[in-house]
Design a protein that fits this description.
CATH class of chain A: Alpha Beta
CATH architecture of chain A: 3-Layer(aba) Sandwich
Number of helices of chain A: 5
Largest sheet of chain A: 4 strands, parallel
Shape of chain A: globular
Strand content of chain B: 15-25%
Strand order of the largest sheet of chain B: 1-4-2-3
Number of helices of chain B: 3
Distance between the termini of chain A: 32 Å
Number of strands of chain B: 4
CATH topology of chain B: Histidine-containing Protein, Chain: A
Number of domains of chain A: 1
Strand content of chain A: 15-25%
CATH topology of chain A: Rossmann fold
Order of helices and strands of chain A: EHEHEHEHH
Helix content of chain B: 25-40%
Radius of gyration of chain A: 13 Å
Number of strands of chain A: 4
Strand order of the largest sheet of chain A: 2-1-3-4
Distance between the termini of chain B: 53 Å
CATH superfamily of chain B: HPr-like
Structural class of chain A: alpha/beta
CATH class of chain B: Alpha Beta
Radius of gyration of chain B: 14 Å
Largest interface: A-B, 21 and 15 residues
Largest sheet of chain B: 4 strands, antiparallel
Helix content of chain A: 40-55%
Order of helices and strands of chain B: EHEEHEH
CATH superfamily of chain A: Phosphotransferase system, mannose-type IIA component
Oligomer: heterodimer
Structural class of chain B: alpha+beta
Chain lengths: 126, 100
């Protein structure tokens, strides 16, 4: 199953989004990587790397950053790690996490999971 | 068109429509279950219609975006693959009692 890592400046935001996506998509592997190592707002390459390892079940990992340096951190890790098994989704954070988690939980492949997250850009809620 | 002995057009020959009145809101969790089920049947096209809106069942956000609440009429349209069995599976999810 494809794993999903939610990258945010805020650990509360990343963990809340992971909890929500996990509830809606039972069985998905959604791991939060939010905040700095000492609990402040920010991004931590180490935390993201650990989250990728925790999410990885062998079928690849989708990174979903919220904004700003979350995106830059994700891009930097893509250069460092095995890029064939990682994708970054350009998608709204909550909606993308939910859509990706549902796709991943159904056993779809990394490209399809990434596309599901990115289709969230067009989803209307009203 | 001359009548053909065997229905061979997969786009129309095996189209199935089911109409349900929702016993519960079609909100996040059931929408997730619908999308998970849809993903398990890639050979079948599944649409949900509610009023003027329609959603591809594979899109959890699209299904949530229907805004279908308890008491609403939802049509489930399936074509291709095991269209009838898939339609029944989706109807079962829509009609299942609220979990937990």
């Amino acid at each position: 199953m494809v794993g999903i890592v939610l990258i945010s400046h805020s650990s509360g935001l990343a963990e809340g989004a992971a909890e929500l996506a996990g509830q809606i998509a039972g069985g998905a592997r959604v791991v939060a990587a939010g905040g700095t190592d000492d609990g402040r707002l920010g991004t931590s390459t180490e935390r993201i790397t650990e989250a990728i390892a925790a999410a990885d079940a062998g079928d690849g990992v989708l990174l979903l950053p919220d904004l700003g340096s979350s995106v830059l951190s994700a891009l930097a890790l893509l250069e460092e790690l095995d890029a064939r098994r990682l994708r970054i989704a350009d998608a709204p954070f909550v909606e993308g996490a939910v859509a990706a988690a549902v796709a991943a939980s159904a056993g779809l492949d990394l490209d399809t999971v990434a596309r599901s997250a990115e289709e969230a850009r067009d989803a209307r809620k009203l | 068109m001359p009548a053909s002995s065997e229905p061979t057009d997969p786009g129309t020959a095996d189209a199935v429509i089911r109409i349900v009145v929702l016993p519960k809101h079609l909100h996040a969790r059931p929408a997730g279950k619908v999308a998970q089920a849809a993903a398990r049947h890639p050979a079948t096209t599944i649409e949900l219609h509610h009023g003027h809106r329609k959603a591809n069942a594979r899109s959890v956000l699209g299904v949530m975006g229907l805004g279908a609440v308890a008491g609403a009429e939802v049509r489930v349209l399936t074509t291709g693959g095991e269209a009838a069995a898939v339609a029944d599976e989706i109807v079962d999810i829509l009609c299942a009692p609220e979990a937990e």
